[in-house]
């Protein structure tokens, strides 16, 4: 058992990207933030499934080339091997929860 306060962790890129509250041993849990216009490189996972739950704003998530605009209160589930690309095309900050399971340290494959 443990408790982590979000304020004790930092976003990967200063004011954006993932802020991991938990990495393993069985799943990842992160708060993710994107400023207007920011994106995250297209990638997929061989084993892990990924979920995004939108807390604030709306974000475009392309899954296997199909655009999905996901809004506050919505969840998108992404299966292993589905290529996904996230971009904030709005004029405001997007904040969401990301979960990945089952945890694997090196399961991300980036796409050019």
UniProtKB/TrEMBL annotation:
InterPro entries: Cupin_2, Flavonoid_dioxygenase-like, RmlC-like_jellyroll, RmlC_Cupin_sf. Residues 31-98 form the Cupin type-2 domain. Pfam families: Cupin_2. PANTHER family: LIGAND BINDING DOMAIN PROTEIN, PUTATIVE (AFU_ORTHOLOGUE AFUA_6G14370)-RELATED (PTHR43346), QUERCETIN 2,3-DIOXYGENASE-RELATED (PTHR43346:SF1). This is Cupin domain-containing protein. It comes from Anaerocolumna aminovalerica. The lineage of its organism: Bacteria, Bacillati, Bacillota, Clostridia, Lachnospirales.
């Amino acid at each position: 058992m443990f408790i982590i306060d979000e304020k004790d962790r930092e976003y990967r890129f200063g004011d954006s990207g993932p802020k991991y509250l938990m990495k393993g041993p069985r799943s990842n849990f992160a708060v993710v933030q994107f400023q207007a216009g920011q994106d995250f490189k297209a990638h997929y996972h061989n084993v892990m499934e990924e979920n995004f739950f939108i807390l604030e704003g709306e974000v475009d998530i392309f899954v296997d080339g199909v655009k999905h605009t996901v809004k506050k209160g919505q969840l998108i589930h992404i299966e292993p091997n589905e290529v996904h690309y996230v971009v904030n095309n709005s004029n405001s900050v997007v904040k969401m929860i990301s979960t990945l399971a089952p945890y694997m340290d090196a399961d991300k494959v980036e796409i050019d």
